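hi!! sorry for the late reply, been swamped w classes. u asked for the two structures so here they r. pasted raw, havent cleaned anything up. first the sequence of the first protein and right below it the tokens
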Amino acid sequence: MKQFQKICALHEIPSQGARVVNTDRQSQAIALFRTADDKVYALDDHCPHKGGALSHGLVFGGAVACPLHNFKVDLATGGAMAPEQGQVPCHTVEVRDGEVWLAVS
């Protein structure tokens, strides 16, 4: 059974932007991404290409483009978008009554 930790209010993540969080149980910084239609995704804040901070990238549709080399990552799967290859670890996140909850291991 997953345990969730309340992270922030939805409005604290910029629309089409990101917010970085660190939890007591995660060793890697996690980026929370909010799309234009208020869906929230959680990925490790580390591009598989050159290690750039994905949280500094441009969110468009259901993806984020790394600020270093425009490497595109699907927010739902963490997979690099063709023709690129690579994978970013995803984390379970839920929005409940305007609050963002992150599953912690």
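now the second protein. again sequence first, tokens right under
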Amino acid sequence: MKIVGLSGSIVGSKTRIAMNSAKKALTEKYPDLEMTLIDLADYDVKFSDGRNFLDYEGDTGFVTKTIMEADAIIIGTPIFQASIPAALKNIFDLLPVNAFQDKVVSMLVTAGSPKHYLVADLQLKPILSYMKAQIVQTYVFIEERDFHQKEIVNDDVLHRLDRLVEDTVVLTETFKKVREDKEAEYDF
């Protein structure tokens, strides 16, 4: 199983810290799984110009192809001005409309205020649904107060990250089994 962690911003550190915690939880609990962590701050991703994702080269091609080859994606996003970052929206624009078909997508959200709790429900989930994702319904919301000196200090958040990783893996395995059983019904 290939899992991609996507840290969806080019600025700040809290989302990357949370994504590192999710990766650590995944590699400790599921050491045989392959996880690639993509932090958009580390890549020079071009703006979408409507081309097929396979036509992009360099960092843009690497990021889009890696996402398309994944079985599951854990998206980490900060909330800026009550919205997802443009860098993350650009990733969605670079991919085809059915990019997440047969993929499980889970989310963790970092925000400076509890007022931004519903942004994932009202903005991110509709985009993922439109792109055919199987969405892990519960997501981890992490506030500014949950961090101290570049670490997550809230044990409840760490527990919820562990559960998010587990839910992502279990749902991915479940959907894979369902698809295999469905395909086995056809006699070709």
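hope this helps!! also noticed smth abt the second:
The chain has one domain: 2-184.
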